[in-house]
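Fold this sequence, please.
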Amino acid sequence: MIKKKVASEINISIKREMEEKQMNYKNVATEVLAKVGGKANVKEVTHCVTRLRFNLADIKKVDEESIKKINGVMGSINKGGQFQVIIGNEVGNVYNELIKLGDFSKDSSKNENTENQSIGNRIMDVITGSFAPLIPAIAGAGMLKVILTLITTYNLIPQDSSTLKLLTVMADAVFYFLPFFVAYTSAIKMKTNPFFAMMIAGVLVHPNFAALSKDGVQYVDFFGIPVRLAMYANGVVPVLLGVWFMSYVEKFAEKVSPNLLKIFLKPLIVIVITMPVVLIVLGPLGTYIGDYFILLIQFIYAKAGWLGVGISAATYPLLVLTGMHNGMIGIIIMMFATMHFDPILVPSALAANIAQAGAAFAVGLKTKNRNVRGVAFSGTISALVGITEPAMYGIHLKFKKPFYAVMLGGGIAGCLCGILGVKAYAFVNPALISLPIFIGQEPYSLVYTVLVALAAFVIPFILTLMFGFKDEVEENNNVEVIDTASKKNIGKAPENIASPLDGEVKDLYQVNDEVFSQELAGKGVAIVPSNNQVISPVNGKVSMLFPTKHAIGVTSDSGVELLIHIGIDTVKLGGRFFETFVKVGDEVKKGDLLVKFDKEAIEKEGYDLTTMFTVSNTADYSDVLPTKTGEVKSGEEIINII
């Protein structure tokens, strides 16, 4: 029964969240655009799996705090000269609405503002920008490798089948021709000609170049200069270095080529200067960098394998937080090219991703806030399929303690990865659906991987319950926090609450204000008023009174915290048409007059006077139940608290 209730809550929360997001794509895009400085401030906008990525003319025009408060935005990052807005799984839909609002297409004549970046940030920005666009293609090919692993492991298709061979070609193509993909994306990032860049890749992977190394030949000469022969098919560092050098050569060629001859002279200059430098210097240098990095990985794994994987898993969320995890793709590919497996980065990412799901699930079960529950449960599912930003930005960073549980629990699971010798044999974002990439020749390799996944989920789940977190009940711009680690439901006696005014009772979900319709300000009812005065619904004390007089809080003698919010957006009236008869701290009796308002004048101004009447400390009780629908008189009981 309990399992069914939890499953039902998860389904309802996810469905509701999806419906709400579906309606708000345009609103989110419009608000984000306004808060990043408007169309004139946007030079370019792209998106990855979960984030809008802005290149802006003036970063100082961004109102970052306001952006974080936009419904549908999980957070923001200003990293490496790029302003990123975290949306989550629906980023593609928001992006589609955003590009309708302005022409944000790539313009190579616009230079990114990088002069204030450190050299390290510039390098990381280029690496990340070069690999991030490749993630969908690499992920698709990786998943096909997962399917092929299952097919070959269980002999679903004969090994000599042409079907299996063709599927293998499909899965390997993006990795074999990776230099071409990296050449293109890095050229776009460095604002140089992508087709010149692809020529570099073409030279490095040309079969005749590879054929020069037959019979063990390691060097050939180019006009008497030795050229080291290397296998560049899976390399990415040589291409990145080559495109970087070429970007300067192209500027030089553009400058010295007469307009009349530019159509052939410019590319000729680029080729005859760039290609020899790449073959003689940058290609071998990139190969050495890759080789020594692999030796470093092998050394770390040999000397402290389990600890290295644990540290990598514990810090992986920080890489995702900064976007630097995309820069690891090149390293992973180099490992597969030389070692044919990855014993550290992909296994640690598996532990970290599943840890995000475990902590989010604990928050979803523990929270009393329905909106938080919906984000937590949907973030759990996203993390289990490898997309962790919704859980991380929507839950863990927001409440902080779950983030610590993720790092600690993921680190422990990562250590278990190293102890059991879990290795990845294909590259795809690790998640439950991609566990077959860890199937190897070692006995029980899949069993060990499943054990790691279970540990990665259960340990952060338990740690989150132990650490607790501060649950939120939002009330417009005020937030009440409840520490789930120490504060429990008080279990007060049932109590009946009277209506504060005459009118027609409606369900809160019908209110055209998301703060109340989503019960972020607590459970309760809405009342369409038929009179013009608000009375105290209980014996108690005035605990809050907005300066604009449109909202008032009363705390009953038994501790029920009540909010009476008169109208929607009536805060904009600035107190006009409202008159108060109490002040904060006043003792009141049930039926005492609190506020009067000019109903006709407010409606004439175009405002909806639907009044929200909620229990702010809903989480302190088992439930808050409306007891009446339709017409009601002030003083009649309309809410039962149990």
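The domain at 16-106 is CATH 3.30.1360.60 (Gyrase A; domain 2). The CA atoms of residues 196 and 267 lie 8 Å apart.
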